[in-house]
């Protein structure tokens, strides 16, 4: 046992040093100090949206610094526990058993923290806006879209990340035609962007009275939420704005005023609907922000496509059909890019998707490195 710890603890410290080199705690402390100054300004709440951005950024930075500090302390505590066992032979068995449990938790938590160092994309640290749309498969596809919405909301809940459902379009019989929601967390976009693509469900359809097996599809789109510094300006002449009443399941009206907004960007055909806010003005502002986010991503994709064209890279982009959820004739969820799989679909649908996300982030980084070589 002692030999294992003598090898494991230096390995943990090496990984921790690599993480610290990327995260740069000193830089985090400088950012926290600057944000604390802004948060202390007497006129901070004169602009509520700016104030919320400051306090949110401060909370995120402080949380990240605390994670780094606590992880280093946990490695120190583990080493002290092993030393204590060596000095007290009578209690060594119990102490080492506890240390082994701590080591297992440390390995997992350090692996999760290491994933963060792989998120170095231009927009990775932003909040994420996720849109789920039902695809081929009729009512089963609409039901699958609702299952995926619940899965991601449960994942966010497990991590304590605030979410906000911004728009839902219900299907007539069951499920959703589409849903858009925001995840407010550090690196939410970088983390969840590997979930973008086509998801496939195979099961005995609960909507088929003959009990036949049905394959259905849903598309997941992930974009970073824009910030005021992004300067994505859209001329009014390029926008078509329609207002309508918010609707609930079965098409029933849940709002007696025309407060919901559908915004169309005429040059690209991109459409954004928003009905979560109480007023038409608020929904219009929210829709414009999401539209700007989509145009930001589109601009980025066009730039990347141009670079690939100049480099002679004609490989198709990753992220089309990327994961299968099979409930019949066997139980398996498998990512088709990373080969990561789980034999417990219900746990996955309950939000246990960290393994898939982490494998996806590592896979993406390896793909990027291979493309650069």
From TrEMBL:
<keyword id="KW-0648">Protein biosynthesis</keyword>
<keyword id="KW-0488">Methylation</keyword>
<keyword id="KW-0175">Coiled coil</keyword>
<feature type="modified residue" description="N5-methylglutamine">
    <location>
        <position position="252"/>
    </location>
</feature>
<comment type="function">
    <text>Peptide chain release factor 2 directs the termination of translation in response to the peptide chain termination codons UGA and UAA.</text>
</comment>
<dbReference type="GO" id="GO:0005737">
    <property type="term" value="C:cytoplasm"/>
</dbReference>
<dbReference type="Pfam" id="PF00472">
    <property type="entry name" value="RF-1"/>
</dbReference>
<dbReference type="InterPro" id="IPR000352">
    <property type="entry name" value="Pep_chain_release_fac_I"/>
</dbReference>
<comment type="similarity">
    <text>Belongs to the prokaryotic/mitochondrial release factor family.</text>
</comment>
<dbReference type="InterPro" id="IPR004374">
    <property type="entry name" value="PrfB"/>
</dbReference>
<feature type="domain" description="Prokaryotic-type class I peptide chain release factors">
    <location>
        <begin position="245"/>
        <end position="261"/>
    </location>
</feature>
<dbReference type="GO" id="GO:0016149">
    <property type="term" value="F:translation release factor activity, codon specific"/>
</dbReference>
<protein>
    <recommendedName>
        <fullName>Peptide chain release factor 2</fullName>
    </recommendedName>
</protein>
<dbReference type="InterPro" id="IPR005139">
    <property type="entry name" value="PCRF"/>
</dbReference>
<dbReference type="Pfam" id="PF03462">
    <property type="entry name" value="PCRF"/>
</dbReference>
<dbReference type="InterPro" id="IPR045853">
    <property type="entry name" value="Pep_chain_release_fac_I_sf"/>
</dbReference>
<keyword id="KW-0963">Cytoplasm</keyword>
<feature type="coiled-coil region">
    <location>
        <begin position="61"/>
        <end position="116"/>
    </location>
</feature>
């Amino acid at each position: 046992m002692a030999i294992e710890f003598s090898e494991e603890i230096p390995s943990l410290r090496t990984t921790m040093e690599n993480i610290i080199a990327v995260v740069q705690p000193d830089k985090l402390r400088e950012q926290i100090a600057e944000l604390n100054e802004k948060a202390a300004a007497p006129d901070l709440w004169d602009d509520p949206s700016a104030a919320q951005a400051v306090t949110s950024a401060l909370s995120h930075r402080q949380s990240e610094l605390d994670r780094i500090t606590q992880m280093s302390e946990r490695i120190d505590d583990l080493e002290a526990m092993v030393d204590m066992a060596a000095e007290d032979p009578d209690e060594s068995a119990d102490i080492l058993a506890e240390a082994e449990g701590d080591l297992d938790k440390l390995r997992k938590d350090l692996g999760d923290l290491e994933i963060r160092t792989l998120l170095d994309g231009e927009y990775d640290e932003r909040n994420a806006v996720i849109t789920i749309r039902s695809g081929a498969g009729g009512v089963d596809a609409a039901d699958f879209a609702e299952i995926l919405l619940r899965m991601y909301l449960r994942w966010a809940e497990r991590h304590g990340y605030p979410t906000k459902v911004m728009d839902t379009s219900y299907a007539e019989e069951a499920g959703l035609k589409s849903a858009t929601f925001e995840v407010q967390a550090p690196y939410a976009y970088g983390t969840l962007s590997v979930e973008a693509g086509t998801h496939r469900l195979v099961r005995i359809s609960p909507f088929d009275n003959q009990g036949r097996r049905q394959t259905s599809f849903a598309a997941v789109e992930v974009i970073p939420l824009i910030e005021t510094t992004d300067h994505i300006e859209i001329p009014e002449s390029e926008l078509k704005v329609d207002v309508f009443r918010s609707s609930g399941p079965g098409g029933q009206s849940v709002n007696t005023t025309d407060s919901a907004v559908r915004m169309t960007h005429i040059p690209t055909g991109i459409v954004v609907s928003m009905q979560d806010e109480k007023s038409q003005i608020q929904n219009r502002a929210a829709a414009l922000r999401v539209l700007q986010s989509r145009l930001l991503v589109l601009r980025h994709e066009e730039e990347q496509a141009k670079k690939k064209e100049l480099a002679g890279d004609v490989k198709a982009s990753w992220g089309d059909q990327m994961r299968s959820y099979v409930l019949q004739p066997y139980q398996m969820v498998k990512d088709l890019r990373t080969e990561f799989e789980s034999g417990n679909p219900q746990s996955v649908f309950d939000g246990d998707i960290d393994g898939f996300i982490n494998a996806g982030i590592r896979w993406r980084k390896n793909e990027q490195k291979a493309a650069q070589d």
